[in-house]
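Deliverable D2.4 — example input (structure tokens):
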């Protein structure tokens, strides 16, 4: 295989292929938040208990997070196009099955399958971007991906509210899933024609680390399960799973190092963590998503349960955030090459200030006018979110070797899913504890939002620390510069070596 064969064509076909990836990413991430406002509809139309409703939300996040790294590695090994199309097809079929579910148990089962399929699609998107684009075009592509991540999560409550308002409470929840079908079918059909076929290497094929998958899966499961079930499992015994998860992840780390010493391909190339841009970027992403996604969880709950907003009205209140995050991400994709981590610092500051503005609005403005009063703070927070997610994704993955892009993207997004689950558990615990102690709903939402701000400030501190470290010890800002830390990984795969030369433009 030659470098010329692997180089993407210099036309707009790549951008059309990117549109396919983004469409699939949009519906898979939309499903993380669109169901939140549909839970009352599920209870009324399907008779779903609180436990079933919890699993509809948390089960999706759980299997999504479990599938990311193994699916990314499979895409790296056997082709991201094939993995993407299989995952998208499974996601679309599972969405139809969710919408047709005859009972709560079937809905939960199909929702678990849907989450695993979403986890199969997500890492292929970042890997395909690494393959198809280079330099400033890659930053622009990641900027568009950042727009999709921010907008799909933020617009979920609005989309769910619109569907339920249009169809009705009894069956509105079904259309929350049916809406995926036309997009999924169209994206799959276009993907068959547009997604690039990168030739496989005729050299030695890598083996799949099944034991590593088992260790990582059990570790992530032990970490996420008590977090996503925090409200349903009332005993303190659930928290004993967290140190168990930490031990399993430590065992996974030791196993992966052993795999590397024996010359076998690991599930996750630990040399990636010697890249400061990757390690700190992943930590920033984890802590930011812990604060960012929880806002839509507790805020929409407060609006509906305490102020009597409809699902549609609650969704409309976050529209400024969603629209502004799209604009911010587009700007971030253009400016990240010039400003780097400074852009992330600016974005995180904007999100923190925006959420503090929402806290002030809750405190000062009567309930019926809260949606209007929070519009400007939501707008500021949305721009900040766009300037955070998009540039941070670009900076985190820019030095990752192309042949490890899928697994690296899986690690990054696993952190996002774990962060989201942890944030909802922490912020939700603060909010519900205040409500259980007969505190005012206004006090509960203020404390919940301030907790979310605290998590975002942690991400801001990490970004500032990285920025200062770069001033003292600069790290190459482009994959065009030598990446010695990833050299062992490049030697492990002939395909990876060729693709890395493509990324370098050689």
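Example output (designed residues):
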């Amino acid at each position: 295989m030659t470098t010329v064969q692997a180089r993407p064509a210099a036309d707009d076909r790549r951008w059309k292929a990117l549109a396919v990836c983004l469409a699939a990413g949009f519906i898979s991430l939309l499903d993380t938040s669109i169901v939140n406002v549909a839970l009352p509809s599920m209870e009324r139309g399907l008779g779903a208990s609180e436990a079933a409703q919890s699993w509809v939300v948390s089960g999706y996040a759980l299997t999504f997070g479990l599938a990311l790294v193994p699916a990314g590695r499979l895409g790296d090994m056997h082709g991201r196009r094939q993995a993407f199309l299989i995952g998208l097809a499974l996601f679309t079929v599972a969405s139809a099955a969710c919408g047709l579910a005859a009972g709560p148990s079937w809905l939960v089962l199909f929702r678990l399958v849907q989450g695993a399929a979403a986890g199969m699609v997500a890492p292929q998107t970042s890997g395909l971007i690494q393959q198809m684009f280079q330099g400033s075009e890659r930053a622009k592509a990641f900027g568009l991906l950042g727009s999709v991540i921010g907008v799909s999560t933020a617009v979920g409550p609005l989309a769910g509210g619109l569907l339920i308002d249009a169809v009705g409470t009894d069956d509105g929840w079904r259309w929350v899933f049916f809406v995926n079908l036309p997009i999924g079918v169209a994206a799959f059909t276009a993907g068959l024609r547009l997604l690039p076929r990168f030739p496989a290497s005729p050299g030695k094929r890598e083996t799949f680390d099944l034991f590593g998958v088992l260790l990582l899966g059990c570790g992530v499961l032990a970490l996420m399960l008590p977090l996503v079930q925090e409200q349903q499992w009332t005993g303190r015994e659930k928290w004993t799973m967290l140190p168990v998860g930490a031990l399993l992840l430590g065992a996974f780390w030791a196993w992966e190092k052993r795999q590397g010493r024996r010359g076998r391909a690991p599930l996750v190339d630990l040399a990636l963590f010697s890249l400061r841009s990757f390690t700190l970027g992943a930590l920033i992403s984890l802590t930011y998503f812990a604060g960012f996604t929880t806002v839509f969880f507790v805020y929409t709950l407060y609006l509906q349960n305490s102020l009597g907003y409809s699902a549609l009205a609650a969704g409309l209140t976050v529209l400024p955030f969603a629209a502004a995050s799209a604009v911010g991400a587009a700007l971030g994709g253009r400016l990240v090459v010039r400003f780097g981590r400074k852009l992330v610092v600016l974005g995180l500051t904007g999100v923190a200030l925006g959420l503090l503005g929402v806290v002030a609005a809750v405190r000062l403005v009567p309930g019926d006018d809260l949606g209007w009063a929070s519009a400007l703070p939501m707008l500021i927070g949305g721009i900040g979110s766009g300037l955070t997610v998009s540039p941070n994704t670009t900076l985190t993955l820019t030095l990752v070797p192309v042949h490890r892009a899928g697994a690296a993207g899986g690690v990054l997004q696993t952190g996002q899913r774990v962060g989201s689950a942890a944030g909802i558990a922490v912020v939700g615990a603060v909010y519900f504890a205040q409500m259980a102690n007969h505190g005012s709903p206004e006090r509960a939402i203020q404390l919940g939002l301030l907790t979310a701000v605290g998590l975002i400030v942690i991400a801001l501190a990490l970004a500032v620390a990285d920025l200062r470290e770069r001033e003292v010890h600069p790290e190459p800002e482009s994959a065009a510069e030598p990446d010695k830390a990833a050299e062992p990984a490049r030697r492990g795969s002939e395909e990876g070596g060729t693709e890395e030369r493509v990324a370098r433009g050689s």
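The chain has 21 helices and no strands.
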